[in-house]
Amino acid sequence: MADDLSSFAKDIFLLKTLKKSTIVLRMVVLVLAMICGVYICTICLKQVGVQTETGILDIQRTESVCPEPIIEPWEIPYVHYPKPKTYNRAECACNPVRNFAILSMQRSGSGWFETFLNSHINISSNGEIFSVKVRRSNISTIVETLDRIYNLDWFSSASKNECTAAVGLKWMLNQGLMQHHEQIAHYFRAHGVSVIFLFRRNLLRRMVSVLANQYDRDAKLLNGTHKSHVHSHHEAEILAQYKPTINTTLLISNLNQVNGTAATALEYFKSTRHIVMYYEDVVKNSTKLMDVQDFLKVPQRDLTSRQVKIHKGPLSGQVENWNDVRNTLIGTPYESFLHDDYSK
């Protein structure tokens, strides 16, 4: 009996010892689990912190603001930082760009003038964009086209892309400009577009050029090809052989109309930042091209053009019915056109 009691007591002691060991083991496992949990949480928090910091840096890098250029306060509305949709301006992203438009009339030297601008490494003048009728069909298509040009998303042979400092186009007055002048003037002011007016003083010479160009569209004197502008003296001599006959009955009214159109354009866009240039002044004085570069706020460079003038010398040798034209203009405000001459 005593042996049984002793054995029973031993069993109870072993059970208690085993239970204590199990509790201790569970506590050890729990502590280890807690330590592991804390360690894992610490690692995760560090990773989240690094990702958050990286995200903030990426956002800051993406949304970095270009430093303000050193300019006069009045110039601020005319300085832009385009973000093209079609390419990255890369290291030139913080190079400011100025918007401009050359407003002119056909055969006023605008094509020749534009080649000078495009010889500048930082100027992109994209040509006669609105000669295509669909682009000027309404104000919406006009604005859409202008947005692409001034955002540097318009590609032409003149585009300098990344490091463009001045971007614009050549726009003839009869290409939707006068019909939508209020909305376009508003657009120019809102988008800081500087206007370069380019006219000819001698409207009689312009008329000769217009008539000769119209004739060549059909005659195609240069080996069956029509060219509005040429790059060799030989081609210029061939085109200059044609002498147009001017309708003297309509001559005065035509000159009045062209003169009035130019005056109206100046009135329509007088609220924009603008400069008025004359073809004759550019021909006679190369410093006028420096004035344009100053106006566009681009570095001064020597500008060049490969175009060759077609009609040279006195007008008397360029008009078929010269005596009739001379008699019509003598005693009128346009008489000075008869005597004006320049050799270039």
TrEMBL record:
The keyword Iron does not apply. The chain crosses the membrane at residues 23-40. The keyword Transmembrane helix applies. Keywords: Membrane, Transmembrane, Transmembrane helix. InterPro entries: Nod_factor_sulfotransferase (IPR052796), P-loop_NTPase (IPR027417). This is Sulfotransferase. The lineage of its organism: Eukaryota, Viridiplantae, Streptophyta, Embryophyta, Tracheophyta.
